[in-house]
């Protein structure tokens, strides 16, 4: 009885008795498979290393290492653990068979064996092995498809959030450059911090990529602020300022709705930290929670400095733009009060790059320092 294969599987045969080895090799070849007979475990190891077999026929009683031991070695190796092993042995006691299965074999044939038993075992377990490989391939395809769908959903949510952020920013910044500046400078400062001993393990490449995008959502809550307050040219009243400060709460409520549907999205999680806490101050005098020091999320501490810089150098309906030098002077003076000293230190060390990245046509001219506290209430 022969089973012809279109794609012949290769069968490794391990037996230290040459006559048995020749008999099994003949059976395998006549069935249409590729026979790879070896008389020792050492040679079997080399054969497996050269080309993985589709199935292994193995004796148990052999010098140097017995079949049980070699089978356990195969099952420990990620490259060979799924290869079916069939024991062909003169050991026929039930305990021997049990030990064979416990070592990882899929079948156990006793000597003297029948040709039909060998062929049926080979056919059955090769077929099962093929099904297992097909299942693995299909699972990988399904996994890729699911991941693609999840990424697409995440991208859609991200794009929707960024679109809302752009709408909010457009009401407050007619140039459309604020989000671009914020994004670039947050990445720059995060990268600078990551190169210091203190932050090299805290700030990963993923953190840097995430803050570059998540920073754009910092003022998404301004969508909830009325135009008469957001676009007011004069000073805000106490009540108006309180309403303006609520943009942090409105922003986190919007983002929490997105995050609840996909809690694995690190981009939204960081965006929540930034939107909610970028007006906290290092000394605890900020809002909305009055957090201080390192209780303020790191991404929000970076954003606080970057956002302040861009607000100072940019022209708004309620203020002119000030020079880069004025902005640096104010930020340096607020180190340890409004801002994290570590962030300010890196910010000032990279100021030439910030000037190139952020100071546009409208950020030149005014050299007198603005009222920082009054301006802070409008950001």
Task: Characterise this structure.
By secondary structure, the protein is of the alpha/beta class. It has 2 domains: 10-140, Rossmann fold; 173-376, Hypothetical protein af1432. The protein is built from 16 helices and 5 strands. The protein has helices spanning 18-30, 41-50, 67-76, 94-102, 115-172, 178-194, 205-214, 227-230, 238-245, 247-261, 266-277, 298-313, 324-333, 341-349, 351-358, 372-376; strands at 10-14, 34-38, 55-58, 85-89, 107-110. α6 (178-194) runs antiparallel to α7 (205-214), α7 crosses α11 (266-277) and α11 packs across α12. The radius of gyration is 35 Å and the shape is elongated.
Structural topology:
Elements: E1 10-14, H1 18-30, E2 34-38, H2 41-50, E3 55-58, H3 67-76, E4 85-89, H4 94-102, E5 107-110, H5 115-172, H6 178-194, H7 205-214, H8 227-230, H9 238-245, H10 247-261, H11 266-277, H12 298-313, H13 324-333, H14 341-349, H15 351-358, H16 372-376
Parallel strand pairs: 1-2, 1-3, 3-4, 4-5
Largest sheet: 5 strands, parallel
- Beginning-to-end CA distance, first to last residue: 85 Å
Radius of gyration: 35 Å
Shape assignment = elongated
Mean pLDDT: 85
What's this entry about, in short?
By secondary structure, this protein is α/β, with parallel strands linked by helices.
Give the tags.
single chain, 379 residues, alpha/beta, Rossmann fold, Hypothetical protein af1432, 2 domains, 5-stranded parallel β-sheet, 16 helices, 5 strands, elongated, disordered N terminus
């Amino acid at each position: 009885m022969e089973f012809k294969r279109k794609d012949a599987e290769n069968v490794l045969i391990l037996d230290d008795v040459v006559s048995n080895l020749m008999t099994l090799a003949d059976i395998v070849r006549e069935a249409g498979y590729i026979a790879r007979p070896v008389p020792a475990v050492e040679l079997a190891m080399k054969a497996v290393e050269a080309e993985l077999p589709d199935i292994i026929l193995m004796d148990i009683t052999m010098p140097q290492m017995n079949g049980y031991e070699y089978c356990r070695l195969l099952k420990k190796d990620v490259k060979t653990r799924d290869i079916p092993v069939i024991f062909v042995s003169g050991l026929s006691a039930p305990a021997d068979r049990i030990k064979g299965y416990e070592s990882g074999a899929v079948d156990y044939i006793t000597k003297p064996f029948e040709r039909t038993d060998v062929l049926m075992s080979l056919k059955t377990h090769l077929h099962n092995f093929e099904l297992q490989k097909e299942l693995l391939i299909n699972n990988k395809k399904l996994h890729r498809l699911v991941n693609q769908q999840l990424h697409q959903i995440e991208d859609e949510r991200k794009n929707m959030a960024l679109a809302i952020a752009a709408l909010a920013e457009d009401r407050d910044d007619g140039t459309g450059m604020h989000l671009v500046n914020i994004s670039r400078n947050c990445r720059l400062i995060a990268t600078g911090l990551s190169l210091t001993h203190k932050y090299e393990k805290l700030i990963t490449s993923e953190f840097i990529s995430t803050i570059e995008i998540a920073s754009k959502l910092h003022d998404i809550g301004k969508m909830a602020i009325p135009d008469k307050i957001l676009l007011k040219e004069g000073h805000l009243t106490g009540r108006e300022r309180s309403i303006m400060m609520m943009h942090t709460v409105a922003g986190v409520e919007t983002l929490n709705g997105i995050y609840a549907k996909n809690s694995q999205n690190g981009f939204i999680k960081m965006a929540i930290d930034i939107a909610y806490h970028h007006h906290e101050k290092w000394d605890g005098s900020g809002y909305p929670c009055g957090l201080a020091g390192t209780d303020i999320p790191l991404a929000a501490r970076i954003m606080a400095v970057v956002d302040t810089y861009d607000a100072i150098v940019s022209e708004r309906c309620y203020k002119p733009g000030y020079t880069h030098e004025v902005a640096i002077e104010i930020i340096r003076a607020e180190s340890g009060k409004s801002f994290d000293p570590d962030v300010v230190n890196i910010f000032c060390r990279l100021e030439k790059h910030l000037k190139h990245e952020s100071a546009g046509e409208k950020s030149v001219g005014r050299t007198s320092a603005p009222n920082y506290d009054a301006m802070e209430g409008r950001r």
